[in-house]
Structures
1.
Amino acid sequence: MAQPFFFMDLRTGDLEVSRRFYAELFGWTVADVPAGPVTVPMFVDADGPWGGVTQLADGDDRRPQWIPYALVTDLKDAVERATELGATIVRPRVDLPAGSVIVIEDPEGATIALWEHAPAASRS
């Protein structure tokens, strides 16, 4: 079986504390990566970004957590199937240049992001 998760996102209440913690614990690098007109903090290695670091917004009552991203071929179908199986949508669809994502919670409350790559022509 192929690796089921292709990307990870750390949701944190304090970006600098998390950056320092993972750098000191594992030697991981967090770099500010250009994303359109802004930069976003991402875990990177020699092959490029492999994970994101997202600052929780003020007033967001969710606990800091890691969210794995699972690749799907059809986001709409995957979300329909997930909700049929008891999942709930935590974050509605967001379309980005590289693809689209919907964040769900499984029936027990575990969070996972479903990701569909954008067509190759729109990513270039």
2.
Amino acid sequence: MTDLLAKKTSASAANGLQRGVVAVMLSGLVLAAVPAAAQAFTAVNRLQVVPAGTSQFEVIGRAGAFKPDYWCAAGDYVRKSLGLSWQTKIYAVDGISRSVTTGARSAVRFTLDPEAAGITPYDANWVGDILTPGYSMRANAAFGECEDSLFPFRRFN
């Protein structure tokens, strides 16, 4: 009786092990099939940033995101994901429009190389829209736009 119980227990343990191995293999296959958009960089303000062609990247917006939030995500991406200097210039390629990478309703493309993106750097003293094509900020100034996301009640003190 004990021998029969031991055989039954070892058989069910082997089946459980086989199921576990199969589950791990299937989950690995599923992860390998996930598109590149799912591997996006998540900025400190929770906006997603994805590469968008050569020398460009795109910040994917969400409901309630303001224009400075896009710059915040761009500065965070340049510094943390790309590992570039705080002094790196980031240029807006276009304003808020449909995403070219994910199809999201609101996204902004940025570049580090305005010539490659086909835009003229904005060099006037004043700008009414901080997402004007060609307008630039250094990574430290762009990341400085994160302050309201990180400390939302600070302006009320």
3.
Amino acid sequence: MRIYLIGMMGSGKSTLGKELAKALNYTFIDMDHYIEEKCCKFIDEIFRDYGEAWFRAFETNTLKEFKKMDNVVIATGGGVIKNKKHKEIMDGKCIYLSVPLDVLEARLEGDETRPLLKTKTVKEILEERIPLYEYFADIKVENVNMESAIKEIMEALK
């Protein structure tokens, strides 16, 4: 099975994903890091050098590569839901890690590595994306406490 973690930047997809993969004895993949390795550039450099449209196209191809894998937990990039066609490609369990705005803002305060935060606020991005996260989600879990969130996910996967 492929488990896709979706949610805002700062929602804990990578941190929780590593622990969830351990609990399931699955392989963990951080999609942004995977893309950075393939491109030999950091995400913010990819956005700067090639633009968001190019990055999103590369993201689509990366998701297609993941379809060949099994027993993986994939922490997707926060914007993977911007292309509704990705829902078809992400054929596994899609888990939305929901986090309250104030918690996201605290987690992301001073983070200079997020290209979209240079042009929009966390609140603007969240309001734009919530309906998309909910559209993609098979399971929605609030991730304020990682242990509780993992327990809830494990129950939902049974």
